Amino acid sequence: MNDPTPGQDRIRAAASGDNPADEAARAGRLNLLTAGLTLLAAGVCLFLAWKAVSSLLVIFAGVLFASFLDACALALAPVLPVNRPWRLTLVVLLLTALLAFALVWGAGKLPEQTRLLLKVMDTQLDVLQAHLLSFGVDLFGPEGGRDFTRWFFSDQGRFFSHAQMVIGTASNFLTDALVILFLGILFAFDPASYRESLVLLIRRPYRARVRGVMNEMGNVLRLWLVGQVIRIVLMTLCVWPILYLIGLPGPFVLGLQAGLSNFVPYLGPIVAAVPIGLVAMPLGLSVTVWAVGIYTAVQSLEGYVIGPLIQRQAVELPPAWTLVAIVLLGALFGVMGIALAMPLVAIGRVAVLRFYVEDCLGDRLSAPVEDMRVKSGGLAWTLWPRRHQR
Known about the structure:
Layout: H1 7-16, H2 20-51, H3 53-76, H4 84-107, H5 110-133, H6 149-153, H7 156-189, H8 191-199, H9 207-246, H10 251-260, H11 267-280, H12 285-311, H13 319-339, H14 341-360, E1 372-374, E2 383-385
Antiparallel strand pairs: 1-2
C-alpha cells in the first residue's frame, strides 16, 4: 500500500524520530527529575543549616549589630552633614570610647558589688532551703546543687574537666563576641554589596521584589534594636536610683540586670525580679515588699505603656506568639536562641507577609514594595509609598 504522507514530511519525521507522546513523556521525566533534585538540594541545605545553626545565629547577631551602627549613623545625619562612611567611623570610635570608659569605671566597682550580691543571694538561698525543708521540699536535690566544692576537691580529674569547661566557654564567648563585632562593622560599611550578592542568586524578574523585602527587613531590625536599647537604658536608669533609695546593696548591678532582662520579653523581667527579692530579704519583709513591688510597678509601666509605644513601628506580634517563639528557639538553640528570638520572629513575619500572604495568596496588605523608594545609604532603608513622594 502507498503511504499517503508526503515525502518531505516522511523524511522529517524519520530524521527527528520523535512524536508528541514521546516528547510529553520526556518532559514529564525532566520535570520529575528537576523536582527531585530541588527537594534533595533543599534537604541538604536544611541539614547543613541545622548543623551550623550556632554559626548562623552568630552571623545574624552580626547583622543585628550592623543595623544598630547604621541607625546611629542615620541619627547623626541631620547634625553632621558628611559622607556616611565618616559618620560610621565616628560612631565606631564613640562606641569604643564608651566601652573603654565603662570597663575602666566598672573594673573597680562592679566586681566587688557582684561578689557582695552573690554572697547575699547564696545566704538567702540557704535560708529559703531551710524553710522549704520544714515542709519536706528539698530545693537543691539530695546531693546539694550548690555544693560546688565537691567539683574541686573530690578528685583531680573532675577539677580539670570543669576547669577545661569554664575556659572553653569563656573562649567561645570571646570568639563569638569578636566575630559579631567585626561582622557588624564590615556589614555596616558596605551593606549594598552584601545585599546584592544575595539578590544575584534570585531569578531576574523577582530581584526587585526580593530587594524591596530585604530593605523592609533591615528597617524592621533597625527600629526594633534601637527601641530595645532605649528600653534597656530607661529601665536601668529607673530601677537603679529606686533600689539605691530603698537601701539595697549593689543597686547599679541590680538595675543593670533589670534593664538587660528586657532584651528577652516576658520571661526576662520575671527572672530579673528573683535577684532583687533575694537581696532585699535580709533587710526585712517591708523592704522586700517595697523593692519587689516598686520593681513590678516600673516593669509593668515599661512593658505595657512605654515599650509598646517605642516598638509599635517595628514589631506588631501578639504576646502569645512571641512567648512561643522564645520558648521554642530557647529549647532548640539555647541562650543564643532566646536572645535572638524577637528579631528572628520580626524578619520572619515580614517574609511571611510579603512572600506568602501577598505573593502566593494574593492579599494586598500594604503598598507594593516596588512602589517604594529607598532612603539613601545604610543597611536598613526606610520605605515610603509613592503617594508620599514629592
